[in-house]
Amino acid sequence: MSVTLFYASVSGSVEVKKRQERINSVLSSKKIAYKSIDITQKPEHKDLMRKIANNPTAMPPQIANGSSYCGDFAAFENAIEVGKLEQFLKI
């Protein structure tokens, strides 16, 4: 399995962009291998993100490991705060 970050390259929200950058920054700095999927490029990417999240209205950024949903930005930040990022990412 591999960690996947679902993100939006096109967003009118500065907050969404900051959250996506924060996740990229943390994963890169901790040398955690991950792939990024831009949900704005193909509708099926957004559909996949929402299916994995089991939420028909889920918005990016969302994180998964394979087909196993990890969580959204708030859950990611909480995992960092309590020192359980690897458990959160299921790695």
From TrEMBL:
Gene3D superfamilies: Glutaredoxin
SUPFAM superfamilies: Thioredoxin-like
InterPro entries for the chain: Glut_rich_SH3-bd, SH3BGR, Thioredoxin-like_sf
A GO cellular component annotation in the UniProt record: cytoplasm
Similarity field: Belongs to the SH3BGR family.
Annotated protein name in UniProt: SH3 domain-binding glutamic acid-rich-like protein 3
Species for this entry: Oryzias sinensis (Chinese medaka)
